[in-house]
Amino acid sequence: MSAVDGNPSFRASAISLGLRANWRQFALLVLINAFVGGMVGIERTVVPLIGSEEFGIASTTLVVSFIVSFGVVKAFANLVSGHLADVWGRKRVLILGWLVGLPVPFMIMWAPSWGWIVAANALLGVNQGLAWSMTVIMKVDLVGPKSRGLAVGLNESAGYLAVGVTAFLTGYLAAEYGLRPVPIYLGVGYAIAGALLSILLVRDTRDHVRLEIGDSPREAAAIGFWEVFALTSFRDRNLFAASQAGLVNNLNDGMSWGIFPLFFAAFGLGVERIGILKAVYPATWGILQIATGPLSDRWGRKGLIVAGMWVQAAGLFLTAATREFEFWLIGSLLLGLGTAMVYPSLIAAVSDASHPSWRARSLSVYRFWRDLGYAIGALSAGVIADIFGLSWAIGTIAALTFLSGLIAALLMRGSQPESRRTNDK
C-alpha cells in the first residue's frame, strides 16, 4: 500500500482535481494521444490503395477486411480496458497498448501478402483500444466533473488532428515515393515516442478517482461488470442513446476509411488529392473539438449530438451525389464538423451518467459499441459496394446516420454536465 493509499489526509493534500492543478500530466497525455492518432493516420490514405494496387484485390469487401479486423479487435480491447485499468492501473494498460502497437508499422511496410496487413490491423486495434481508452479515462480522472467536455475535446482533438495531418503527409509521401515503405516511417516514430513517454513520464490517476469518489454527492452502488454492460448498452436510456449514436458515428467513419479512397480513385483522382480529402475530414474533426467539447459543458450534450449526426449525414449524401473535387471537399468538411459536434459530447454524456466508481467500465462498454461500428460499417459498405456500387454504399450509410440522430433526439434526455445538475437522473 502506498503512502497515499494509506493516509487519506495526505492524499487529499497531495492530489487535487482540475485542469490547472494537473496541466503537466494532462498536456503529456494530449501529446501521447496525438501519437496514438497518428498510428491510425498512417493507414487512412495508403492502405486501401495498397490492397487494390499492390496486391490487385478487386473485391471491395476484401479490401476493407483490414478495417473489419481493426474494428472487432479494438471493440473488445475497449471492453476489457476499463476493468484492466481498475485492476492493474491506468499506466500499465497504456504501456501494454504501446508495446502491442510497436510491430504494426513494420508489418505494413514489409507485408508480403494481404493477410499480414489484416494481422497488423488486429494489433493496431489492441493498441488503439488500450492506449486511446487510457488517455481518455486518465484525462477525465484528472479534471473531475466540471470540465469533462473540455478534457475529452482536447484529447480527441489531438488524436484526430494527428490522424488528419498524418493522412495528408502519407498521401504526399506516397505520391513522391510510392505507397511503401516511406509513408509508413511516420508510424515507426509515433510508436517509439508514445511507448517511451508512457513508460518514463506518465503517472497513474487512480488516486484522483478515489478523491472524486470521496467528494461525490452520489453514493457508489456495488455493481458488477455485466450490470454496467447492461446499463450502458440498453437499460439506461441516455447511455443507450449514446451507445447507438457512437456505433453509427464510427460505422460511417469505417465506411469512409475504406470506401472513400476507392470512390475518389474510381473518378480519376490522384493519390495526393485523395490524401487531401482524407486529411480534411479528421483534421476538421480534430481542430473543432477544442471548441465543441467545452460547448457541451455549457450547452449540454443532446443538442450537439443530434445536430452533429444530421450534419454528418448531409456531408455523406453530398459526397455520394456529386462527382467533383470541390463538392467532395465540402462533404468532407461537413463530415468533420458533424463528428466534432458528436464525438466529445458522447463521451462526456456517458461520463455524466456514470458514477466515478464504475465510470471507466461504462466508458469501456460505450467504446466497445462505438468501435464495433468500424467493422460493421466497413463490412456492410463493402458488401453494398460490390453489389450496387460505391455511391450506394455511401448513401446507405448516410441514411443510417440520419436515423441514428433521430433516435438520439427521441430518447436522450436533455443532459447537462454533472456540475450543473442537482440530481444524477
Can you describe this structure?
By secondary structure, the protein is an all-alpha fold. It has one domain (18-208, 223-420): Growth Hormone, Chain: A (Up-down Bundle). The chain is 81% helix and 0% strand. It has 19 helices and no strands. It starts with a helix and ends in a 14-residue tail after the last helix. Residues 1-13 and 418-425 have low confidence and may be disordered.
Short description:
The chain is mainly α. The chain contains 19 helices and no strands.
The Cα radius of gyration reads 20 Å
Q: What value does the average pLDDT take?
A: 88
H/E order of the elements?
Answer: HHHHHHHHHHHHHHHHHHH
Largest sheet: none
The portion of residues assigned to helices is over 70%
Low-confidence stretches: 1-13, 418-425
| Percentage of residues in strands | under 5%
Total helical elements: 19
> For this structure, what is the CATH class?
Mainly Alpha
